Amino acid sequence: MSDFTSLPDLAVRTLGGSVIAASDESFEEKENLLNPWAPRFSPGTFGPKGQEYDGWETARRRPDANGDLGHDWALVRLGLPGVIRGVVIDTAWFKGNFPPHASVDACAVEGHPSPADLAAADWTEIVPPSPLKGDTAHAFDVASGRRFTHVRLNMLPDGGIARLRVHGDVVPDPRLLTGLTVDLAALENGARVVGCSNMFYSSPDNMLFPGLARNQAEGWETARRRDPGHDWAVVRLAAPGLVRLAEIDTTHLKFNAPAAVTLSGASSPNGPWRDLLPRTPVQPDARHRFRLAPGEPFTHVRVDLHPDGGLARLRLLGDLTPEGERALHTHWSTTM
Predict the structure, then answer these.
(1) At residue 154, does pLDDT exceed 60?
(2) All structural domains of the chain with their residue ranges
(3) Residue range 251-291, pLDDT digits in tens
(4) Where exactly are the transmembrane stretches of this chain (predicted)?
(5) Each residue's pLDDT tens digit, 184-236
(6) The CATH number of 174-323 is which of 3.40.50.150, 2.60.120.260, 2.60.120.330, 3.90.1580.10?
(7) Could you tell me which CATH number the domain at 4-170 has?
């Protein structure tokens, strides 16, 4: 099994994922499947429907007049369409009520389809019916290589699942990016952090997430340095482009923001690095915006924290080069 869990969760709620329909949610709501936090459990917490779980739980199925038991399903719209590399089906805390088997299908549909529209979609099985255990995170590799927009989780036949994680590579629609000023560092546009000095408290990819951080855990934060060095992260841009404006956001980092930052660009993840923003003081719990002098296009940008600390968000607004636009279209077309 490959270590796909380091890739972004394309379905998580904080990246725009949503459970848009389910066959049943008698005990616990379908929306719990995509909660970003680890599943929680408090024994002896009984509501009107029984013991409360942080997950999706359906009623016990019974055969119909023809003896057909059927199965339950949940339909998920990925927040970030992309190539799925692996799926995690987590039955945390479901010990006597987990489904014995599960499978996952995926499809790619243009626009903003409804559940009824998706019923007629061309679905591909990406995880075949597989046995599950209770209170266990099950990881399944996916080798399709295609770009998908939706997945369908099938419980065979019923029970409870705490979380569904859908890890993969973001593949943005280039028709929404070409010819426009875009955030070249946005995860939703295909950017990724490809190296960093320290990720003790949280992942550096967090600073590329959409929207504003709601607390300091939703950004990138390093451990306290006890040597003369400083921390850094290297961002692979969505595609080659000219960076014209940088936003350095330390929101919620009130006592652990860096004292200063620098930005540099390169045409490879290892440099050579050219200055974009000289060493510049930043304030805690604040958004900082800097116009950058016109320069050459880059494929990677390095942010340096002096000496350590964290960033809530990093935005790098600019223009795709013709080469960058072609690269996005090629990647998109080859995964369709």
Answers:
(1) yes
(2) 4-170, 174-323
(3) 999 999 999 999 999 999 998 999 999 999 999 999 999 99
(4) none
(5) 999 999 999 999 999 999 999 999 999 999 999 999 999 999 999 999 999 99
(6) 2.60.120.260
(7) 2.60.120.260
Q: What is the pTM of this model?
A: 0.94
Same fold, 4-170 and 174-323: yes
HEC letters along the chain: CCCHHHCCECCCHHHCCEEEEECCCCCECHHHHHCCCCCCCCCCCEECCEECCCCEECCCCCCCCCCCCCCEEEEEEEEEEEEEEEEEEECCCCCCCCCCEEEEEEECCCCCCCHHHHHCCCCEEEEEEEECCCCCEEEEECCCCCEEEEEEEEEECCCEECEEEEEEEECCCHHHCCCCEEECCCHHHCCEEEEECCCCCCCHHHHHCCCCCCCHHHCEECCCCCCCCCEEEEEEEEEEEEEEEEEEECCCCCCCCCCEEEEEEECCCCCCCEEEEEEEECCCCCEEEEECCCCCCEEEEEEEEECCCEECEEEEEEEECHHHHHHHHHHHHHCC
